[in-house]
Design goal:
The chain has about 375 residues and is mainly alpha-helical. It folds into 2 domains: about 60-230 and about 360-365, Citrate Synthase, domain 1, CATH 1.10.580; about 235-335, Cytochrome P450-Terp, domain 2 (Cytochrome p450-Terp, domain 2), CATH 1.10.230.10. It contains 18 helices and 5 strands. Helix 11 (about 215-225) packs across helix 18 (about 345-365). The longest helix is centred in the last third of the chain and has 23 residues, at about 345-365. The two termini are about 20 Å apart. About 45% of the residues are buried.
Length: about 375
């Protein structure tokens, strides 16, 4: 049945449709298979297990480009070239200026979580001035995360060091001491890996908000709210819980078999889009090996992954539950020494340039996102 709804656009046509009215296509739960935008930013090829960032394979970007350089790649054409040419310096300036949000963060109620305090800081961040709003927001996120984490631990936030890149300064502001080069490289790899990933839930939220004409700060705040939901951004922590519960590599198969027999889900496996291995998992696994080739955590993770893939194929042969990004995200960030409560905030730091890019791309198109709903309630007539 075709339902006519004024003021909506549709790819379908109907010769009998009255002028000014466009037909609505049948409902697609979860918007599965529905395209609502065209983008130059990233392409997720779920069938072949590929992720392109502005036409570049992820494996050619992550581990090669710094967080700032990868952001330049993503933002090309959306920000002035002069800003992109000195983005590292401008991100450093944004971290320094973000200290203006610290009073609001410090005044937050005791017990407020890291992520919630970080969002509070973003809401208090002044966006007026000579910095482009995307730079002011994305550049500020490392300081906001570090400050939120330290405040949650009862410690005073540390000021930014403008001589450092975003990843190095983030680790220093968290710990109070400089990070080792291999730790910085591992974190850079992670931040670049999660920079953008098509029209996922949080990115779609950012585009919807941006389409209303709201500013970038509102769009990113909305995206962060969407990310907080456990179906979108909450898997890396539970992956570590699973790894911790498996006492040794040799115990992996029996533990996983028991979990599957009990009908419980294995965290870190399966993805809504990828029907093969998530390419981001390989990029992060490589980074873990570079961090420490003899790392016991890597050997254990590999044993768990091998056992899980074999048992999942046997237990659920009709589903392609391959390793996803959360599995090696958990192992990599844990190896750097980062607490699991920081995993979702760290994801937000890495994804913020992508959220900003999508918001700017949506606003350049100038159209309000206004999907339809098919009414199935009672008829008053």
């Amino acid at each position: 049945m075709t339902i006519q709804t004024p003021g909506l656009r549709s790819a379908s046509t109907d010769a009998d449709t009255p002028a000014g009215v466009t037909p609505v296509t049948p409902a697609a739960p979860g918007l599965e298979g529905i395209a609502v935008a065209e983008t130059v930013l990233s392409h997720v090829d779920g069938v072949n297990g590929r992720l392109l960032l502005r036409g570049h394979e992820l494996r050619d970007v992550a581990g090669t480009l710094s967080f700032e350089a990868a952001t330049v790649l993503l933002w090309a054409g959306f920000l002035p070239k002069a800003d992109l040419a000195r983005l590292t310096d401008l991100f450093a300036a944004a971290r320094e200026r973000a200290s203006a949000a610290l009073p609001a963060m410090c005044a937050a109620p005791t017990g407020l979580g890291v992520y919630e305090r970080m969002r509070l800081g973003l809401a208090a961040l002044p966006l007026a001035g000579d910095l482009h709003p995307a730079i002011a927001i994305a550049g500020a996120q490392p300081l906001l995360l570090a400050a939120a984490a330290r405040l949650a631990d009862g410690k005073a936030p540390l000021p930014a060091d403008p001589s450092l890149g975003s990843a190095a300064d983030l680790l220093r502001m968290l710990r109070g001491t400089p990070a080792r080069p291999e730790e910085i490289a591992a974190l850079e790899r992670y931040l670049v890996t999660v920079l953008d990933h098509g029209l996922n839930a949080s990115t779609f939220a950012a585009r919807v908000i941006a389409s209303t004409g709201a500013d970038l700060g509102d769009a990113v705040l909305g995206a962060m709210a969407a990310l907080k939901g456990p179906l979108h951004g909450g898997a890396p922590g539970p992956v570590l819980d699973m790894i911790d519960a498996i006492e040794s590599p040799e115990a992996a198969e029996a533990w996983i078999a028991d979990e599957l027999a009990a009908g419980r889900r294995l965290m870190g496996f399966g993805h809504r889009v990828y029907r093969t291995r998530d390419p981001r998992a390989d990029v992060l696994k490589e980074g873990l090996a570079l961090l420490s080739p003899d790392l016991p955590a890597l050997r254990k993770a590999e044993a768990i992954e091998t056992a899980a893939q074999r048992l999942l194929a046997r237990h659920k042969p009709d589903r392609k539950l391959r390793t996803n990004v959360e599995f090696y995200t958990a192992v990599l960030l844990d190896a750097i020494g980062l607490d699991r409560r920081l995993f979702t905030p760290l994801f937000a730091v890495g994804r913020t340039p992508g959220w900003c890019a999508h918001a700017l791309e949506q606003q350049a198109g100038g159209r309000l996102l206004r999907p339809a709903a098919i009414y199935v309630g009672p008829d008053a007539g």
